[in-house]
Inverse folding.
């Protein structure tokens, strides 16, 4: 398990082949930041081309089906992602929970299927503003973790958790450093409960309006092991400013 800071771009439903130039630029510049693990999850249609166009960055899916194959029109399985060149998959993003009715149980089944196919997994959790205002942020996130973390024998392998408060996604509102710190500590405690010592090694990413300007402060918070970045991952320039903020040292020349 790597302990490098992990900066992951989630392109969501954005990107056609013309945007591969951004991925190439990110890939080239990533060589200057050997202390950072960088990845992009493009739409399914770009996974294979992005894999072939890049050398340094990880490439991932944004969802997968529980089954390996079958009569599931429009779905993509974990072995298919692997076959297309993906290294990992994002699961349980709040947009999938809200817009596709994904339950914790389904997310857990997907996570176990993805791990069985050899993919790394990023399980996303996060409360809505209503849940936070009602004082339930911690209990909501804890319940999501209880329900959606993979439990197989090797459940902690290549697993990351992304804390993405729903109200911070695409809104320009970032959780306060105190709130991020408090929630990441709770998540760490839960990971240790579930996985024992291995729970200490799992990276906990923050997501929600991360930009180059706020990345240094967010990435400096204890227990923040990286960032899951939406809008700012769509251009090489803005994404690389976040990668640079995660670099433990000055970039190598190149
Ligand atoms: O949902 C996100 C990443 O998965 C965050 O999106 P933004 O960075 O656009 O707020």
């Amino acid at each position: 398990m790597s302990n490098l800071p992990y900066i992951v771009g989630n392109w969501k439903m954005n990107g056609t082949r013309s945007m591969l130039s951004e991925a190439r630029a990110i890939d080239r510049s990533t060589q200057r930041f050997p202390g950072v693990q960088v990845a992009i999850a493009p739409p399914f249609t770009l996974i294979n081309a992005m894999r072939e166009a890049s050398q340094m960055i990880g490439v991932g899916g944004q969802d997968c089906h529980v089954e390996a194959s079958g009569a599931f029109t429009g779905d993509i399985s974990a072995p298919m992602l692997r076959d297309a060149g993906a290294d990992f998959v994002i699961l349980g993003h709040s947009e999938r929970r809200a817009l596709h009715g994904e339950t914790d149980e389904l997310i857990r089944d997907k996570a176990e299927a993805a791990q069985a196919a050899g993919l790394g997994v990023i399980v996303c959790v996060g409360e809505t503003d209503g849940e936070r205002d009602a004082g339930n942020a911690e209990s909501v996130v804890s319940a999501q973790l209880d329900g959606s973390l993979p439990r197989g024998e090797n459940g902690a392998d290549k697993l990351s958790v992304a804390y993405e408060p729903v109200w911070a996604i695409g809104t320009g509102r970032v959780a306060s450093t105190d709130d991020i710190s408090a929630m990441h500590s709770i998540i760490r405690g839960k990971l240790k409960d579930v996985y024992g010592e291995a729970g200490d090694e799992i990276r906990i990413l923050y997501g929600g309006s991360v930009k180059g300007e706020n990345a240094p402060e967010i990435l400096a918070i204890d227990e923040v092991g990286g960032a899951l970045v939406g809008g700012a991952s769509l251009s090489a320039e803005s994404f690389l400013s976040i990668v640079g903020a995660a670099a433990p040292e000055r970039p190598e020349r190149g």
Summary: The domain at 6-246 is CATH 3.20.20.70 (TIM Barrel).
